[in-house]
Amino acid sequence: MKILIAIGGKEFSKPTLDLGMKIANSFKSSTTIAYVGKKISQFSEKDVSVVHQNLDDRELYRPGIRTLEWAYDFLISKKYIEEKELNKFNDYLLVDEENSRMKVLLKGQQSDNIDLIMRTGEIIEQLKNEVEKNNHDITIIGGGGNKGIHQKLIQFIDSSVFVVKNYSVNKTYKILLPINESKGSDMAIETAINFAKSYKLDVEIISVPEDRKSIDEVEKILTKTKEKFSKNKIKSKTKIIEGGAVNSIVNYANDDSIVILGVSPKNPIMKYFFGSKPLSIAQKCNCPVLITK
Amino acid sequence: MNESYKIISSSILFWFSQKKWFVYSILISIFLLNLATPVGLSIPAYHSLIILLLVFMLVTFEPIPFPAIALLTLVLQVVLGVAPPNVIASSLMNDAVLFVMGSLMFAIAIVHQGLDIRLAKFIIKIFGKSKRMFLAGLMAISAILSSFLGEHTVIAIMLPIGLSVIKNIDTQKLDGKNAVLLTLFSIAYGTIIGSIGTPSGGARNVIMINYLQEFSNVNIDYWKWMKHAYPILIIQLVVAYFVLQFTFPSSLKNIKMRGFKKNVGKTNIKKDINHLFSFFIIIGIVCSWFAFNETYGLGIIALTGALIFMIFGMISWEEINKNTNWGVILLFAATISLGFQINETGASSWLVVKFNELLSTLPSNSMDLSWSIMAVLSGLTANFFTSSATVSLIGPMAIELHPTDISFALSSAIASGFSFLTVISSPTAMILYSTGLVSTKMFFRVGILMFSISIIILYLMSQFYWVNL
Questions:
Q1: Which of A176, B177, B308, B413 might form a disulfide with A257, Cβ 3.0–4.6 angstroms?
Q2: What is the mean pLDDT of chain B?
Q3: Which range, of B117-121, B129-133, B224-228, B328-332, averages the lowest pLDDT?
């Protein structure tokens, strides 16, 4: 499994980095930590590039490197990376791999299974390119900032998207798995099983029937899903919730759940202009939300 | 749903989300093309104004690459009948375009020599007695150099010096944060202000000189421009120094000039010779701009500078080719070509008539009012559209307002250099923003005061100083 963690400002990115690395460690996956720098106007892009090159030559940190250095030190302080004399950040090499993408190489970093990447440009385009280049399975991004970014990421990025909103290291979380009969739910169930196995978290499977007639059908789906968890020796509870799907799930999730959802089967054009239930849930929830693809 | 349908529609949507301003701009242009031509305007003139609007939108929102905007501008001028292909081709290249090309190459060659270390030594020697003097020195030297060599050259040389002295400052504390901002803004404002000083300070100045020569047959040489602009530059520098000290009060105790002094000591003989030779080339080029600009043109002289650096092996063609923004050169060529057609077709005269009609409806109608509107409009447009592109497109209108009075054209070009409001307005502002240490809000907050004061200074100088020249 390959995981991409997108970081921005230092303090705001702590929960994203922390949860992202927990997931990466539990899945033993290779991880890319990417910092996307500010978009530069075409008028000045060459001038900026010359200045940044000049800063490198003068051993002055170019923008973005300090954030990656902070991220690297944070991983060492949290023991996600073993601290060695060789892998200190003060001796780094920037490799210009392609347009807008630079890789940070540290001496003695080879065994860490972590790539540090700096990109410049429009964030959606850059993260989309990063996922396409390395076939990442999950993109992890913080919950702050512009909500439109999350919607576009979920819509356009070819990987599952984990929006880390209001995450606290000291809080105990449960996995909340809202399901229905769609294909997207099957993906979400698979992911939830893997998460629950690795994390040893409680699982609650919920469903919101559209009308009273479909309650029997929903019960069947819930029972079938619970069996899947039981087969994997994972304890789970099921519950049917009434009301509007989005608000009911958001209220039920509260702030102590990690919500795992399947992507909407809706037409992409309709999703772009009118949104979808998973998109609305991801935007309204006050807790981390993973939308699986 | 069919998987391939989902992939295709998703790709189209992504394209649309990235290029929506291109779609909107084209739709608006098509809509305008289908309206009746306004009274008093010929069809080619009307079409040239529609292309002007299209270019404004595309350059502002950048949905497609600049070279694509440049090519679209040229193609549309021919397809929409603004001018025949040969006329467009001949208006594409002139001294202003050569100057943009030459100054960009010359800048890369200068920056490549690593002159910042030498310059830092010089600044410390002259201004190193106190930290506040040092910052004033950074600002003054940035302004003087920028007035001759252009913003992009000077900010590339000066920024490493600035970042060296602030690199260990803790920006979590207000005093430290202010010291960082004061240092960066001193360099940036010095560089921005300096660029109005001489014709070679910015491409916009050369473009305006070129337009004045073509449209009004008025010649402004290097010295004449300096006599008009340099006093404004000096007053602005003094004002900027106090504005920055007032906005970012700091004890400056965290600025470490000692560590910086150690860093600047590392040079060797080969570098010394290179630096000395570079110094002679720069002096030679600046002197040539003074002495021969009417004979050879500013563009050819700038190109000569880059040529000498290449002939003596002080920079490779690969280095110049890699770092030259060819897209910007192409875009300027296309916008200057459009500027010529806006003038030739009579579109600029029509706009000026409409502008004057609008002014006559206002209670107080005078030269002062039309000057003020034109100067503020030039300054504001430049802040959202970059200065050179602004002058290349609205320069013809500024000249048309008073073809025999150069104060209108000069004011428009100089006001376009007041890039204090947005980070997209100039290479200096964008480079400052790209450090991640200055936000767009911060830039605007300081800039609005500086912009307003600069317009007032420009007005007073045009009223009381230029009239005596």
A1: A176
A2: 90
A3: B117-121
Candidates B320, B324, B337, B322; CA nearest to B71 is B337
pLDDT band at A58 (very low <50, low <70, confident <90, very high): confident
Helix (H, G, I), strand (E, B) or coil at B447: helix
Nearest alpha carbon to residue A187 among A256, A264, A266: A264
Distances (CA, A) of B13 to A132, A156, A269, B354: 17, 9, 7, 41
Q: Give the C-alpha separation, B216 to A144, whole Å.
A: 56
Look up the CATH architecture of domain A2-164.
3-Layer(aba) Sandwich (3.40)
Q: Contact at 8 Å (CB) between B420 and B440?
A: no
The complex's ipTM?
0.85
Neighbour tally for B291: CB within 10 Å: 14
Q: Is the pLDDT of residue A86 over 70?
A: no
Structural tokens at position B1:
């749903």
- Judge whether B407 and B462 are in contact, CB under 8 Å: yes
Q: Pick from B13, B111, B436: which is nearest to A50 by CB?
A: B111
Interface of chain B against chain A, CB under 8 Å? 1, 6, 9-10, 13-14, 17-18, 62, 65-66, 104, 108, 111, 114, 116, 152, 155-156, 159-160, 163-164, 167, 263, 323-325, 327-328, 386, 389, 424, 426-427, 430-431, 433-436
Of the segments A19-23, A272-276, B97-101, B173-177, which one has the largest average pLDDT value? B97-101
**Chain-centre distance of CA B201, in angstroms?**
9
Nearest to B392 by CA among B335, B451, B432: B335
The pLDDT score that the predictor gives to residue A178 is 93
Of the pLDDT bands very low, low, confident and very high (cuts 50, 70, 90), residue B260 is low
Q: For B153, name the nearest residue in chain A, comparing CA atoms only.
A: A47
CB contact under 8 A, A42 and B164: no
Average pLDDT over residues B197-205: 93
The tokens of A132 are what? 């396409």
For CATH 3.40.50.620, the residue range(s) in chain A are 2-164, 174-292
Q: Tell me what the mean pLDDT of segment A82-87 comes to.
A: 68
Contacts of B64 (CB under 8 A, 6+ apart): B19, B22, B58, B72
Per DSSP, the three-state class of B297 is coil
Which residues share a beta bridge with A240? Answer: A207
DSSP classification of residue B322: H
% of chain B beyond a pLDDT of 90 = 62
Nearest alpha carbon to residue A39 among B24, B426, B436? B436
- CATH no., domain A174-292: 3.40.50.620
Please state the rounded mean pLDDT for residues B445-460.
95
Cα B276 to Cα B384: distance, rounded to the nearest angstrom: 39
Question: What average pLDDT is seen over chain A?
Answer: 85
